[in-house]
Amino acid sequence: MAGVLKMGAARSDAAPKTHDCPATLTDTEVLDFCKNGYLLLEGVVPDEVNRLSVDYCDQDNYYEPTSILAEDWFHQHVICNPAAASAVRSLLGPHFHLPVLMSNHRVEAPFDATGWHVDGNYQFRPELNYLQVFYYPQDTPVAMGPTQVVPGSHLVKNKARFMGHLTGIRGAIPTTAPAGSIFITAYQIWHRRGQATGKGMRNLLKYFYWRTQPSARDWIVEEDFDFATVNYGSPIASVVEQFRADIKVAEMFLWLCGRHDDFQNLGGQSWPLPAHRNGAPYGLPTGL
Amino acid sequence: MTSAQNQIAARLEGDFAAGQLSADGLRAALEALLQDTARRQDLLYLHATSTAPSASVVAMTLVEGGAIVAPPDDPDDWPYQSALDAINDGWRVISFPNMALLALSADDPHGLGFEFILEKWS
After folding, report:
1. For labelling, which of A125, A183, B75, B121 has a CA lying 20 to 30 Å from the CA of B93?
2. What value does the mean pLDDT of chain A take?
């Protein structure tokens, strides 16, 4: 590792702005992302890179330490981290666009929780054209105030200014994670900074990837994956009308498959509602 | 008692049980209790799964004694599991779920839905 990390080596302005790599998520994992709106990859960044990242943030404690993107070691092991990039590749397709901005939610613990919100310029749509990604360079247990999310809330419209009075939300989870974890989210997911009761500096680096190619089912296809019978249920089901979450998840998944034009909801007991049927679900798009 | 008053009482009980309750400590606690007697409106926001007062609560916020009180992390430990629970504990509903939500498209769920706002004076 030490040979790989060349402190001071910097990427030039002429460096590629896109990246490609194998897509390693399976049908089920992509569908899970549609259901939950996030994916947590624990401890995928090497310890030495975590230490370098923390040191870098100690030196550049501006809330947008964008120059870290120019560091080869950061580009290689965080931005193009094999586990994270292959997940991003699965969700955003080939030659996805690399981050152009780095934010750091750097806070000295202890601190209070912030309010629940969705980040500005959100779009509540079935399309997935960009991903917001978080990197924890240090261990982030509950005591260090990890970001909390409401699983599945990317499917439910809200406005940050309408959420100011919310505190406890059933189903919300803290994204506790060991150092080197990368957390990939649908941008519009409801989230907040959790309360920290511990002591020390918490860095949370945040950046963005964009899709550059039309969506397609070019991740790992499972031979036994059955669009007709798979469960499209989401953890957000309790706050929406019955089956509405299933429908939202199915639409998002078909969009990712490049089949959004075929998506249909014929109402009542038709696909994609979960049910014990006597055959193919009525309304199942042809060719799935 | 309010949460703040309960905290003061718990501290006194703890010091008493440990044999550490001093005259100064008792006086300080009494002063804190007396300062906490100004009447204020407490608010309770309960987001339920439907318009029914008995519907399960999916989110809550408590404003008590002039401060926002963080609820327990585990929703099963929240003080009320429905608006009806809160009503039976003396809370008055001052705002019922906004029926305008029903006019929104069923295809576009919005927010946490059915919000009861309740008050108490403490």
Report:
1. B75
2. 94
Q: Do A167 and B109 touch (CB under 8 A)?
A: no
Q: What is the mean pLDDT of chain B?
A: 89
Q: How many CB atoms lie within 10 A of CB A168?
A: 22
What per-residue confidence (pLDDT) applies to B113?
Answer: 79
Of A167, A238, A244, nearest to B106 by CB-CB distance is A244
User: In angstroms, what CA-CA distances link A213 with A24, A51, A199?
Assistant: 17, 35, 44
pLDDT band at A2 (very low <50, low <70, confident <90, very high): very low
Residues A178-196 pLDDT 10s: 999 999 999 999 999 999 9
Residues B66 and B100 in one domain: yes
- Joined tokens for residue A32: 């899970």
Other beta carbons less than 10 A from residue B90's beta carbon: 10
The helix (H) or strand (E) run that includes residue A136 is strand A130-136
State the Cα–Cα distance between residues A99 and A11, nearest whole angstrom.
Answer: 13
The residue in chain A having the minimum alpha-carbon distance to the alpha carbon of residue B109 is A156
In terms of domains, do B70 and B12 share one? no
* Nearest-CA distance B112 → chain A (Å): 6
Residue A235 structure tokens: 């953890």
For chain A, the structural domain boundaries read 18-210
Q: What is the DSSP letter of A280?
A: S
Q: Which residues in A lie closer than 8 A to residue B71 (C-beta atoms)? A: 167-168
Answer whether A138's CB lies under 8 Å from A54's CB: yes
CATH code of the domain occupying A18-210: 2.60.120.620
The pLDDT of residue A4 is: 46
- Residue positions counted in chain A: 288
Interface test with B, best of A148, A166, A266 (most B CBs within 10 A): A166
Same domain, B86 and B47: yes
Q: List, for residues A209-264, the tens digit of each pLDDT value.
A: 999 999 999 999 999 999 999 999 999 998 898 999 999 999 999 999 999 999 99
